[in-house]
Amino acid sequence: MRYFNTEGCCKPQIHYMVRLDNRLEQIKRLYVDRGKYVVLNRGRQYGKTTTLIALAQFLKTEYLVLSLDFQCIGAEEFAEASSFVRAFAAMAESALKKAEAGNGAHLAGFLEEFALDSQKRTLRELFAVFSRICEQSDRRVVLIIDEVDSASNNQVFVDFLSQLRVYYLNREERPVFYSVILAGVIRPDTERQYNSPWNVAAKFSLPMSFSPDQIRAMLAEYETDLQTGMDIEVAAQYIYEYTAGYPYLVSVVCKYLDEEIPYEAEFEGMKCVWTKSGIAEAVKLLLKENVPLFDSMVKQLDLYENLRSMIQQILYQGKMIPYSPAEKSIRLGVMFGFLKEENGKVAIANRIFEMFLLNLFLAEESVCSRAYQYGERIVSGGKRTQVFSTVFKTDYQWRRELLP
Question: Under 8 Å CB-to-CB from 50, ≥6 apart: which residues?
Fold first, then answer.
């Protein structure tokens, strides 16, 4: 029996998930087939890894795919170029050996021989080996690297990207990777610091969030298996209204509806669960949990005070901030997945984030703010509402019955 997954990569054989066939075809046609250098720069738990794993499978009959993950390289291996080169070569060798068609397994011997040499190896020598591999491959070679931001502050990583850029730009003169796809959460300040390695990247404009139709198709598969009697159209629309299609939020809300809400006393039967009230209850339960995505949000807000201040202005004051991707805080918020553009203005990305962030700020105020503490002291006098109407006045959507 399949289930809704919120931990790690999703697999269609064992998980209920949005089908990625159309997205994979578009990535192949618009980027890979055209030999593009692409960066998938999206927030945490936005489906990047699931997409890359599926893409590697999708491309393997036409391309030789080197699919790597920088999280597999330890911090000590980034300490100097020679140790990084050996670790990278070992990963690439393993990927080549797994090639199911063509001469990829044979080409792995070049990297095996390279790694066994006792001499210290350089990045230039590593790329010379890759050039030899690409020259002798019976298919064009695509390089995919996930979690590139895990080493973004490391000079060896920057040097690697610089070499990759040079070889990519000169690939017609000296064979190397036909297309390059990098994925991670790459901050705007990192992009500027490492401008040279990043400035060859094509704009990745395909949506990574799920549409109501995609959510509806996923729920249709679930309904075929369990026969709950839900109104699929209504359930998909309400889930989308809370999540705006953010992949993790869609999955986790569905997971609550499938695994936890049925045991709540007020819901009699699965048909009652997949309704407006059931979805609202699932959102309430989620907001009470300490999930990694929310932890990541708090961490980024602590790191970027201007981003925090802007979000507070939007939530507390209903401030209408013009959308400009050139402004650092806006660009950060969009990249992290916290913010979006809506009618030319900056808006919170979805209702769940609105509720979480406002709850967070109010909780922080209750701990740190003298005004809030003063308000608590005069509740018995019946004046608390007057105090809070001046301290926390807002006309934002959250005040317009956004909470369940």
Answer: 9, 10, 17, 20, 247
Please report the pLDDT score of residue 333 as a whole number.
93
2-6, 116-120, 194-198, 392-396: which has the highest mean pLDDT? 2-6
Residues 368/381, Cβ–Cβ less than 8 Å: no
Cβ atoms of 187 and 335 closer than 8 Å: yes
Residues in the chain: 404
- Measured at the alpha carbon of residue 66, what is the angle toward residues 60 and 71, in degrees to the nearest 5? 130
Q: Which of 357, 275, 253 is nearest to 314 (CA)?
A: 357
Interacting residues of 378 by C-beta distance below 8 A, sequence separation 6+ = 384, 387
Q: Is the dihedral of CA 196, 200, 205, 207 positive or negative?
A: negative
The conformation of residue 184, written as its DSSP 8-state character, comes to E
Provide the Cα torsion 317, 322, 323, 329; round to 10°.
Answer: -60
Please report, rounded to a whole number, the percentage of residues in the chain having pLDDT higher than 90: 54
Element (H, E) at 389: helix 384-391
Which two structure tokens, joined as six digits, stand for 28? 């192949």
Residues 6+ apart with CB under 8 A from 40: 48, 51, 52, 181, 182, 183, 184, 204, 208
Determine contact, residues 198/39, Cβ cutoff 8 Å.
yes
- The pTM (predicted TM-score) of the whole model is 0.85
Residue (of 369, 360, 363) closest to 391 by Cα position: 369
Give the ranges where 2-121 is alpha helix by DSSP (H).
21-27, 48-59, 81-97, 104-116
Cβ atoms within 10 Å, residue 1: 5
Rg over CA atoms, the chain: 24
DSSP 327-358: SHHHHHHHHHTSEEEETTEEEES-HHHHHHHH
Give the pairing type, strands 339-342 and 345-348: antiparallel
- Phi and psi (nearest 5°) for 377? -70, -25
Q: Which two three-digit tokens encode residue 275?
A: 């309704």
Residue 19 has pLDDT above 60, yes or no: yes
